[in-house]
């Protein structure tokens, strides 16, 4: 639509310019070939059409500029509305991150090695219950509707973050579900906690495109997770050895959401 408007404005300007030039030629040619001075009455007869053409040209130019300015104002208003929608979506995603932050902290504490069995049980229980503080999953559907008002680039960034948030609810269902055969409830909880922590690390990468402050909030935990999962023995030098609860390939495939 905007391209057709540009073509129409340009065509109108060209036609008016051609009309002005034609009027000047109609007047100038007879004057050039006139053998004697042109009387004042003749000048008055041609002055009216020339003045009308000039005024039409000036009016068309003013109208043209008004249309361009109006369209520029519309563009600015549209960008302002998109900025407001993006700020609202980013604010709502920030509320999810406010809940994820203590959950992530609890997971880090739960996966720490401890010789106190009661403490380990309490940590697992509190961390599992902390997943219930997540906002209603229907909130993500509402954010998807708001995202439809954004430009394609912002839509891609927001939808990628929302997809990671939806995956978090799937992991919560798996955490409270029945463990696979041959896996104790304790092992299943620890495995799901570590899988959730890895997922949170990826989520931190996705929200970086929305607001660098989001990633800054989780930078310390992202580094902690990277050090914990690092195969380099020098990284974990001096730390107490603990059993790894990372899922094996078969368990990971069973934990993936249905396509």
Secondary structure layout:
Layout: H1 2-32, H2 40-110, H3 117-130, H4 138-147, H5 152-175, H6 185-208, H7 212-229, H8 249-255
Helix pairs in contact: 1-2, 2-3, 2-5, 2-6, 2-7, 4-5, 5-6, 6-7
Question: What would you note in describing this structure?
Answer:
This protein has 259 residues and is mostly helical. Helices cover 77% and strands 0% of the residues. The protein is built from eight helices and no strands. Mean pLDDT is 77; it is low at 233-259.
Summarize the structure.
The chain has 259 residues and is mainly α. 77% of the residues lie in helices and 0% in strands.
Tell me the structural class. Answer: mainly alpha
The number of helical segments is: 8
Distance between the termini: 39 Å
Taken from the alpha-carbon principal axes, the silhouette is: rod-shaped
Strand content: under 5%
Query: What fraction, in percent, of the residue positions are helical?
Result: over 70%
- The H-and-E topology, N to C, reads as HHHHHHHH
If you average the pLDDT, what whole number results?
Answer: 77
Number of strands: 0
Largest sheet: none
Radius of gyration: 35 Å
């Amino acid at each position: 639509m905007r391209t057709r408007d540009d073509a129409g404005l340009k065509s109108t300007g060209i036609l008016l310019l051609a009309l002005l030039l034609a009027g000047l030629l109609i007047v100038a040619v007879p004057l050039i070939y006139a053998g004697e001075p042109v009387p004042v009455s003749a000048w008055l007869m041609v002055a009216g059409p020339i003045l009308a053409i000039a005024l039409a040209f000036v009016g068309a130019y003013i109208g043209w500029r008004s249309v361009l300015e109006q369209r520029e104002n519309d563009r600015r208003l549209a960008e302002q509305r998109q900025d407001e929608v993006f700020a609202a979506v980013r604010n709502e995603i920030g509320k999810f991150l406010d809940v994820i932050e203590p959950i992530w902290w609890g997971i880090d504490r739960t996966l720490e090695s401890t010789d106190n069995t009661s403490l380990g049980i309490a940590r697992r229980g509190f961390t599992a219950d902390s997943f219930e503080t997540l906002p209603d999953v229907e909130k993500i559907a509402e954010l998807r509707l708001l995202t439809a008002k954004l430009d394609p680039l912002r839509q891609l960034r927001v939808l990628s973050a929302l997809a990671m948030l939806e995956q978090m609810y799937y992991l919560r269902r798996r955490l409270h579900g029945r463990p696979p055969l041959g896996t104790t409830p304790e092992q299943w909880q620890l495995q799901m906690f570590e899988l959730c922590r890895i997922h949170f690390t990826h989520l931190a990468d996705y929200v970086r495109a929305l607001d660098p402050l989001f990633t800054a909030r989780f930078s310390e935990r992202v580094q902690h997770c990277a050090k914990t999962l690092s195969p380099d023995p020098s990284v974990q030098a001096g730390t107490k050895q603990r059993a790894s609860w990372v899922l094996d390939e078969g368990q990971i495939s069973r934990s993936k959401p249905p396509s």
